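Morning!

This is the sequence you dropped in the shared folder:
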Amino acid sequence: MLNIPLKDYFRETRVFNSRLSAAAIIMAILSLLLVARLTYLQILSYRHYSTLSQANRVRPLPIPPVRGLIVDRHGVVLAQNYPVHTLEIIPEQVDNMKSLLAELKGLVRITEGDEKSFRKQLRERPRFEALTLRTHLSDEEAARIAVRRPHLNGVELQARLQRHYPLGGLGVHAVGYVARISDQDLERIDKTAYRGTRHIGKLGAEAAYEHLLLGQVGFEKVETTARGRALRTLERIAPVAGQNLYLGIDARLQAIAEEALVGRRGAVVALEPVTGTVLAFTSTPTYDPNPFVNGIETDAYKALLDNPNKPLINRALNGQYAPGSTIKVFFGLLGLEDDRFDTSKPLNCPGHYSLPGSSHVFRDWRKGGHGVIGLHEAVVQSCDVYFYRLATAVGPEALRDFLAPFGFGARTGVDLPNESEGLLPSPKWKAARGQKWYPGETVVTGIGQGMLLATPLQLASAVATLANSGVRVRPHLLLAQQDAKGVQRIEAPTRTAGAIELRVRAHLNEIVRHMVGVVHDNKGTAYRIGWDAPYKIAGKTGTSQVKSIAQGAAYVAEATPEHLRDHALFIAFAPAEDPRVAVAVVVENGGHGGSVAAPIARKVMDYAILGRVQPPAKPALRSEHEE
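The structure's back. Tokens below.
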């Protein structure tokens, strides 16, 4: 008998119906969830997602402002902007950055430094922002990128303004330069103000007046396609260009000073005594600032650092030198003011000086001495022994207290960053450092040696104070600022920094008369620059000792290595009766102030007063009285 199973239709129907019901319930729940989600997106969160959607097709772009120009007092351009092609990438539009960079390297030259800078921007900036990969593309490179542009997603070829210094290294230590914004810069700047801007002032006026030169960033809203292509501009807020700066520097005068120092290490600072305006601000050697704008090559920067002449050092602002005999005019004025030293009584200069009870000999620069002399001859012939005695008579604290109002030992307040203070020592200063002041230190301070240090700018400011009847004016580079349209011009104010208090005002005129003798008396240490001058010059030579000389030893310049030879200094103002320019010159290892530094000052004063450099009428012969 066959065993045929019977099918349970009722049971299968119940199972089917139960499964159908479960599926219907699940579908109903999912439908409700979908409706709830749609309700949330379309009704409750409509504004939020509408804004996000709008942002996907509208891209805000920063518009960098045009950086202000820097020109000299006559309008000669010292720092300008000129258009260059730049290669930029918008990261959010790039599918494969590695392959894109590889393709671009086949089209244009991209250095390791360019790529490193780009990756740094990639980490720090928003992905929707255009990041610079290469600047200053040649026309040929720009053409290659333009041809391939439709196939390079995220790549932009832009015309940007780049900073340029048309006179190269002329005045670089005053003008400074801009460079790419560094990590240290990012920590201190307002990043919003620098949107779209990749450079910032690093040195000189570029750094000091960054807030005026920068301008204000603008913005535009651009409608784009899904792939980021710009379709139209919806809204635009124009940027505000930076202020144009007029510096007091005369570019021609600056060139004369630099040419006079060519081949030497040194500094020249020229000021207007009444206003404090800087006419020339020279430090040599100089260097071209243009390579720094977009990142100087490592080898080129290393060459500058390793250069034994140290061109990157701003000697006018940061060079600190013993002032040597230039200090004697200030101590001569102190001698007139201080009753502890009688300037009316002539002294004998045998060529050497020793403190009472000491066998140590302090020598005069002139072997055999100057004989019996008064203050006038002591200044004119730069007698060391006279000022050894003066310093010993008044004491070290008096020396310090008299020099301080002239600005020694303190920043002048010039409108440049990182100014050095120099050093104005005293017994109190040494005691605060746990050191003893020795009587011999007072002696050598009297001739501007020892620990006393001054910058060329301080020397120029101090001699300008004498020229300005004892009123010290704060030096400043800025002459005026003007908006980009040339409508509003604001002159830089003159700021006084105090006045020298004197018992007898006539003493100032007397010391000026002695300074005139330095240049115009036939025994003056700077007579070689004064005998044919068409105007009166009040000046003082100086020789700053670099290497100590043992007792009894003779100093022979020719036998001394160049880097150990004396520094040559000269300070002056002219015309003596109505000063228009005050000058300080320092020539490192130059030797004699009268033969090396003074002729440089004469060229500067000639141009500042006469508008030309007057050549000497006869060969300049070294005087036996020259220091």
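Headline: The longest strand covers residues 77-89.

More detail when I'm at my desk.
O.
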